Every structure is written in C-alpha cells, then in structure tokens.
Design the sequence.
C-alpha cells in the first residue's frame, strides 16, 4: 500500500478531485504548489506537449523540491533550454502509469530516454524522490507528486 502525505490542505484539495476535462498542465497549475514546474515547462516549450493527447505520467516536483536545489540552479536551467528539457522529460513516462502498476525495483523508460527506478515499500520512490501524493488523474494522464527534482545521469 502506498503511504502518501499531503503537502498542504490547499494543494491536496485542488489535486483530490480535478475535473477530467483538465489536462496535466491545468491540474498542476490549479494545485498552486507547482509554479516553478509550470514556469520551467513553459520556458522549455513543453506546455503544448503536456496539454496534448498523451497519455503521460508526470512525476511532478513541488515548488519546495525546486527550492531545495543549490542556489542558482533554477536560474541556470531556465537559461539553458536543452538542459532544462532533458531534466523535465526525465520526469515524464509515456502512458498513464497508476500506482497499482508499480512494483519494487522496476525500471521505467522516461521520455528523456533514460530509465527511472521505482521502489515500493513503506513508501514509493522514483530514483531518490519520494512520492507524496499518487494517482492524480488528468484528462491526458496522471500526476504523481514527488519531493525532489529528478536529475538524469
């Protein structure tokens, strides 16, 4: 069983019951805890893709996850579209992968082309990030909230 914690009551309420007419970008924007992620998606030119048909699975780092990066990292990434795109696409899987589809030790190839490793136990992890809220459905896929920014090799 996946143990989840809610980042805030406001974010949890916004994520708990999105209208399925809302795509991944709309659901994340409506939650209010993904402003950095949304800004990065826009800067990388990926907004139209994540509004597209999909389906996609997005491991979505919160604003706090981005804030935990070393000082200057976000600014540097926003200025380097290629590196930003590589990092953002490392957070996306093709297809809708629900928590019930995950198994301990499985690897899943990201849109970036590099795999992430899933851990399932007392908590669910993606590489070193912890899934704090799972299975947030959108019209074109699913979002799993994570507590860290994933960095490809």
Sequence:
């Amino acid at each position: 069983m996946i143990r989840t914690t809610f980042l805030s009551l406001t974010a949890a309420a916004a994520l708990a019951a999105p209208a399925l007419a809302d795509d991944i970008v709309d659901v994340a924007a409506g939650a209010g805890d993904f402003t950095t992620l949304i800004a990065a998606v826009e800067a990388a030119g990926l907004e139209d893709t994540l509004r597209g048909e999909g389906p996609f699975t997005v491991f979505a780092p919160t604003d706090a996850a981005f804030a935990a990066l070393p000082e200057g990292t976000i600014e540097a990434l926003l200025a380097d579209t290629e590196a930003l795109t590589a990092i953002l696409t490392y957070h996306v899987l093709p297809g809708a992968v629900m928590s019930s589809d995950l198994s301990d030790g499985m690897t899943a190839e990201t849109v970036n082309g590099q795999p992430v490793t899933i851990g399932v136990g007392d908590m669910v992890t993606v590489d070193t990030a912890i899934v704090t809220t799972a299975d947030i459905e959108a019209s074109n896929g699913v979002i799993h909230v994570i507590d860290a920014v994933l960095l490809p090799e």
In short: The longest helix spans residues 35-43. The longest strand covers residues 129-138. Confidence is low (pLDDT under 50) at residues 1-19. Residues 12 and 115 are 28 Å apart (CA to CA).
